[in-house]
Write a structure and sequence with these properties.
Layout (H helix, E strand, L loop, with lengths): L26 E2 L6 H10 L9 E4 L7 E4 L1 H6 L3 H11 L1 H10 L10 H6 L5 E2 H11 L10 E3 L2 E5 L4 E5 H12 L5
Antiparallel strand pairs: 1-4, 2-3, 5-6, 6-7
Helix pairs in contact: 1-6
Length: 180
Amino acid sequence: STLSVTVPKADRPQARHEPVIAKNSPSIEPSFLISIPIIASSIKQGLIENEGLILVKKEGSPSSVYLKKPLDILKDRDVEGLKNISRIIGTKHIEAFLKKEGVELPDRSLSFDAMLGKGYSVDKKVLTAMYNRHVGKSFDPILPFSAAGFEVKKTVDTFEINRVGEIKQAQKAQGITGWT
């Protein structure tokens, strides 16, 4: 599977956080959804520990320092916590992981942007395959996980990624009895 990436123009630096993705495209900007397989892979590789505590310092508030486990950072969508995890994992590991999975990052992307899923797009099938390969049972407490209008849901033996509205519509359709 191939990946299309929108590269921003040099005169519009803020545009790299806004990839243009067609509505009928199988690609999405992964947002927080990409951070789960990145963290799962990093735990498997021993770069971070599942039960280890990450020191998080709130930006702009030197007195606000706290410790959180990686799954709690994900569950709370803690941006500062994800920043610190991306620093611990390191740019080389994040880029190598994404490249191995078939995801190309824009030239000027930061490891933190890669962890937050900003400024690039990923085919939903590629993202689903990443979940199937890397995300284990220890992540069940935070699933289903939704971000940027999409939800990752674990079924019996695989993961599904759908628009949040599509899931609710499918559930409503199953609950409606038809007239004959």
